[in-house]
Amino acid sequence: MTSVGVVGASGYGGGELLRLLDGHPALKVATVTGGEQAGRSVAEALPHLAGLAVAELTLQRSEPEALANCELVFLATPHEPSLELAPALVDAGARVIDLSGAYRLDAATFGAHYGQTHPDPGRAPAPYGLPELFRDGLADAPLVAVPGCYPTAALLALAPLADAIDSESIVVAGMSGTSGAGRKQRPDLQASHAFGNAAAYGAPRHRHEPEIAARFADLEGASPALTFVPHLVPTSRGQLCTVVASLVPGANSFVLNAATAMYHTEPFVTVLAEEWPATAHVAGGNGAHLRVALDHDAERVVASCAIDNLVKGAAGQAIQCANAVLGLPETTGLSPAGVYP
Questions:
Q1: Count of domains observed in the chain
Q2: Which stretches does DSSP call E strand in 71-180?
Q3: What is the β-pairing status of strands 300-307 and 288-295?
């Protein structure tokens, strides 16, 4: 058994990590930390986990000393705590799976979009934890940068299209439930405002835009001209990204089969032939549902991908990455199946 620490365990992503790790046959949660919740039990901070072994653990302060006996640490934190903790943990010999944006971008791009100088530029960017597309960099990695939830759905939709689209024409519309913003209270996340409302936000320079562009450039070989517009929609969890792009001449004949060809051996990606992806069908699972269709009149392609933002978009994908780092089957402790209705 690998001894595991979860930092930020009292948040939404951290809670999902604890729920999923409880059934993992090779990872055992030994330490949980929770910032403002330090001193409380997991059961008090996250009542839905009552009855699990982790529920009796006490949340500690998020300090490297508290995690000294952990071989693997998940950082389910904003980027600021990750930037403080990750270097110390890696230098002490732990493997770190970081769910924040701290190590997803190179240091210069990070500085431009996060408004601060990266304090650990030699490790940025870390291997990118989207196994379906960047698996080769994960084995034995000391530090993995788990993608953002929007980039996960967007890149899974974009990747099969790389050879068929004009990379100067890409538009990504993202939709996320309120849990994507984390557990902290904000006026726009209150039920009286959010439920019964839908709104765009963060455009045109949301922090996930350079992440999507950089990773697509890794696949395409050139930087795209990409517009990303996220939307907050009235649901607690779930995420949908729909990509629209112009086709290059002659691409019609193979673009519809490209996703099936790319993902037919991937256990967590299902390519749909008739039905469009729906967030209700992936809730609670580590699966991604994808469909590609042609708009013949406009000579464009439409690709839509649905995930659970807290599972395939965060905790589940982090565990998938940990499995890859440790040489375990990526499916260990995970299922693509959602909970419906």
A1: 2
A2: 72-75, 95-98, 143-145, 170-176
A3: antiparallel
pLDDT (tens digit per residue) in 115-167 = 999 999 999 999 999 999 999 999 999 999 999 999 999 999 999 999 999 99
- Of 60, 94, 126, the residue at which a domain comes to its end is 126
pLDDT in tens, 241-278: 999 999 999 887 788 899 999 999 999 999 999 999 99
Only one residue has tokens 């959602």, namely 338
Q: Is 327 exposed, middle or buried (0-12, 13-18, 19+ CB in 10 A)?
A: exposed
115, HSE (Cβ side, Cα atoms, 13 Å): 4
Residue 305 catalytic?
A: no
Q: Is 170 in the same domain as 68?
A: no
Question: Of these residues, 70, 149, 241, 321, which one is catalytic?
Answer: 149
| Cα gap 60→9, rounded to integer Å | 10
The pTM (predicted TM-score) of the whole model is 0.96
Q: What are the tokens at 281? A: 């069908």
